[in-house]
Design a protein that fits this description.
By secondary structure, this protein is α/β, with parallel strands linked by helices. It has helices at 64-78, 102-109, 123-134, 136-143, 192-200, 213-230, 267-271, 285-294, 312-319, 354-364, 389-402, 404-407, 422-432; strands at residues 2-12, 16-28, 38-48, 52-53, 56-58, 61-62, 87-92, 118-120, 146-152, 157-163, 166-173, 180-183, 186-190, 259-263, 302-303, 322-325, 338-345, 369-370, 373-374, 378-381, 413-417, 439-443, 451-455, 465-471. The chain has 3 domains: 2-121, ATPase, nucleotide binding domain (Nucleotidyltransferase, domain 5, 2-Layer Sandwich); 136-306, ATPase, nucleotide binding domain (Nucleotidyltransferase, domain 5, 2-Layer Sandwich); 327-443, no CATH class. Helix 11 (389-402) crosses helix 13.
């Protein structure tokens, strides 16, 4: 079995907006005498758009109409139509995700994004997509090393770390090239955290000041030093913790990073020769890239080439958001596709007994109501240690007792499980409910509380479902 689906990635960033079209190749890699094992075996970027400056109506508002026009024009240039698209992601990243009308922009793009494309944001996901788009995961696996990707954009730096090909940590800092803007030789914007960082180090910078190259260079050196602290190349100072986006957490301690890749708009200024027109983009991106390249602490770690720099996030969005839920699943084709369903996550600790599984579902369900009415929800757990027939029957009973509100409601009972027990569990639930409730049970998918999920129409001769897990969290 060999099948291809088309994916789109759209990245609306602090500085730039761009998109890619990718072709995902799906094959059954199992032998003729075993259960099908269908995977995405190849991801090919077929079209890269031009790179546009993200259009803004004001410092606090994205120009949704102009963004939509950019996307429409690129669809036309690529010879694609929304109906051609099977999966992918629209990502609003960096400072742009903090704009007042970020949701409005996603709504404006909804009719351009195909039936199954999802709208995603959130710094953790951005870190992962950028790192994978830059190839840090591949470097890490090939070298059996710990590799960090620093995606340095206009408003934020997303850091993703891979250890022997496995994700080891993510974080996001408010460090970026457009956090200081310059026009006609004058400072027109300074992000408050950068102003505080400068002041802490005895530097005054305010809107209306003349853009002094020496002062701006010194501030960029301070920003580069904060990135070195974030990946433990130097000790953290007392202002460092305040620079994490949305009061986020730093990387786990003791990662012992062996190598670095850089992506994002500033990355080309890190890898390339310095541009003598320091303020050519109306910001300090060139100066920040130069400061990162010259930072002694960052230079202690091996620098590796990135597969993508400025396009890393959009390539990650177009090629790395889709997963495949495999052959041991239970579903009714007429119920698909379903989109933007919140995850009700049962913790591993709660999974240890049937009583706590039941209680967790029942306790959390009231959180997923709109104006007192239940909404579609996906109940997720690992399924670890419950593979025998009796275990499956008992688990089915606990889910049914906990999810009575869903069973009595208008939506199908949707279960998302990590271990390969979905087919058996879905069948057990249907039998115990005497076929009186629609049940969708998929496996091979890991989720977290706060995630949302899309489940597409069947592919691979109906044996697998394309699934996208995403975060619909906007920075505040």
């Amino acid at each position: 079995m060999h099948e291809e689906i088309l994916s789109v990635g759209v990245d609306i960033g602090t500085s730039t907006t761009q998109l890619v079209f990718s072709r995902l190749v799906i094959e059954n890699q199992a032998s003729s005498f075993t259960v099908p094992r269908i995977n995405i075996v190849e991801k090919i970027v077929e079209y890269r758009s031009d790179i546009y400056m993200t259009p803004l109506k004001s410092p606090a508002e994205i120009d949704a109409d102009k963004v939509k026009q950019i996307v429409q024009n690129e669809y036309s240039k690529a010879g694609r139509h929304p109906k051609d698209i099977s999966t992918g992601a629209v990502i609003i990243t960096g400072e742009t995700a903090r704009k007042e009308n970020a949701n409005e922009v996603l709504s404006a793009l909804s009719d351009m994004a195909g039936d199954f494309v999802v709208a995603t944001a959130g710094p953790d996901l951005e870190s992962v997509l950028a790192a994978r788009g830059a190839g840090a995961d591949t470097h890490s696996k090939q070298r059996r090393a710990v590799v960090a990707n620093l995606d340095v954009g206009g408003g934020t730096t997303n850091i993703g770390v891979y250890d022997n090909g496995r994700l080891a940590g993510v974080c996001c800092l408010d460090i970026g090239g457009r956090l200081i803007k310059v026009e006609n030789g004058l400072i027109t914007y300074v992000f408050p955290k950068i102003s505080a960082l400068a002041k802490k180090n005895g530097i005054s910078i305010n809107t209306g000041d003349r853009a002094d190259l020496q002062t701006l260079s010194r501030i960029c050196e301070l920003m580069a030093a904060q990135l070195a602290q974030a990946i433990e190349c130097s000790p953290k100072d007392d202002i460092h913790s305040s620079l994490y986006t949305n009061n986020g957490k730093p990387l786990p301690q003791g990662l012992n990073i062996n190598a670095i890749t850089y992506s994002g708009g500033v990355a080309d200024c890190v890898y390339g020769q310095p541009d003598e027109n320091w303020l050519r983009y109306g910001d300090v991106g060139v100066l920040l890239g130069d400061a990162i390249r010259k930072n002694r602490d960052l230079s202690k770690v091996e620098l590796l080439p990135a597969a993508e720099t400025i396009r890393a996030t959009v390539v990650g969005a177009g090629t790395h958001t889709t997963e495949i839920s495999g052959s041991t699943i239970s579903y009714d084709r007429s119920l698909l596709p379903i989109k933007n369903v919140p995850i009700l996550r049962i913790s591993e600790e709660e999974e240890r007994s049937l009583e706590t599984i039941e209680a967790s579902i029942r306790t959390q369900l009231p959180l997923y109501k709109t104006e007192g009415k239940p909404e579609q929800v996906a109940i997720a757990f690992t399924g670890i240690g419950r593979t025998g027939f009796n275990d499956i029957q008992a688990l089915a009973g606990a889910v049914i007792r906990g999810a009575q509100e869903v069973i009595n409601g208008p939506f199908p009972l949707l279960l998302v499980i990590e271990k390969d027990i979905a087919k058996a569990l879905g069948h057990a639930i249907k039998v115990q409910l005497e076929g009186k409730k629609d049940v969708i049970c998929i496996d091979g998918i890991a989720t977290l509380g706060g995630d949302y999920i899309d489940v597409g129409e069947p592919i691979g001769a109906g044996s697998v479902l394309p699934v996208v897990v995403k975060t619909l969290i906007f920075n505040s």
